[in-house]
Amino acid sequence: MPAPEPSHLPAPLLTLALVALCACAASPSPEETRARADLEALATHFPAPEERAAPPLDSALLERLPLDPGAPLADWLRHAMLTHPRVEAAYQAWRASVERIVGARTPEDPRLTFELDLASMVEALMPGLMVDLPRPGALAAAAGLAEAEARAAYARFTAEVLRTAYATKVAWFRLHFLAETLRVQREALALLADVEALAGGQVAAGRGTLQDVLRAEIEREELAVRIANLEDARGALAAEFRAALGHDPFDERVPLPERFEPGPPPPALDEILAAARAANPRLAELEAEVRRGTALLELARANRGSAAALGLEADLRAEPVLWRPSASLTLPVWRARLASELAAAQAETRSAELALDAEELALASELALQLYLYRESERNDALYGERLLPKARQALAAARSGYAAGRATFLDVIEAERTLFGFELAHIEAGTQRELALAALSLSIAGVAPEGAPLVAPPAPADAPRPEARP
Fold it and tell me: How many other C-beta atoms are found inside a 10 Å radius of the C-beta of residue 313?
């Protein structure tokens, strides 16, 4: 059978193929446009690597974000959120995921071809162009998959911002707890010195025993060691605080806070739950994973179709020039592989939906626990601050005057002193527990970003119903 004659086609067919290829490319979606606008808005906080003039952890940060020991908590939190390398690492991961959307919605590059017919000489010289046309819906599904991954990356970035703020807040309150504990212990040490002097006077007057003096010395020496241990712990807590800020833990140029601010009471339970559903980054990430599973389903369905390729070659040695069009079509004959891809996408979507349900349950459980801790600390704070501490001070004063008059024993004085300072330490602990519970409620559960946080848009709001995994 003779070979068919090559077709004499006009050159515009090449242009037509390129137009067909360009038509396959999906235009930017509102999701991609919004993500790029967010990236641009945060560029001043996180410049591109090629624009960065200095490493992130150097003295320039201290000059750019000066702090003093009396700075409010909001300044420390802002410093940490803009300084910690973990935050920028999450930002750069989000940036990379946004940049990948373009590649996902863009067709494959066209291919130049070159063919020769050789005998004793070159008989045909045929350059050409081959264009792969994607399966219908494949590029849109791939773009949706990339957008869902970018949405999840933004949620992880938001979570890192909140986690950094929470770690800074916890370290800040732990330093305050240590400072207050040291203050109480030093007051107790001074009081023990007075009690020891009182016991010595009683012994000199013949109304006491040497055993009372020895007991006072024992109490004083034990307390002095506890104070020394607490002062030593200050270095460890200072390192924790500086590391939470994103600095070298042993960089003494970074000051330590000296100001304490109690937080406001939490809102009602239903308000916290509403805020968590709207802004909690873990829920946002899992919702993005559900969207990702849906995009995988759409991509798996698109892959069940055929992909086409168009080509055009020109024989430049022919007179006139001969145009040779070509076309190919993939045959999706491996049905088991296609069915497996679809089943895997359905399972992944279902897994993401169940993980989201489980996280909502865990979040509600954690909310109940933190609210209980907050209420417990409020009750304890009122108990020690308003009722027990005034009575303990009165009891100590009565024991001291009774011992001086011979109506009480030295053990009564020591016991009253232990009770008073035990209540003071419990009062400090209750206040610290209250603030830690508030921090967990606002940052870890509700996802409310502190003032000055490098965030632009809410982390993946639930603006659409959950997709269903259709067969």
Answer: 21
pTM of the entire structure? 0.83
Q: Answer for the pair 418, 245: CB distance below 8 angstroms, yes or no.
A: no
Domains of the chain: 31-109+153-306+338-445 (1.20.1600.10)
Render pLDDT for 261-308 as a digit per residue (tens, 0 to 9). Answer: 888 888 888 888 888 888 899 999 999 999 999 999 998 888 888 888
CB of 16 closer than 8 Å to CB of 133? no
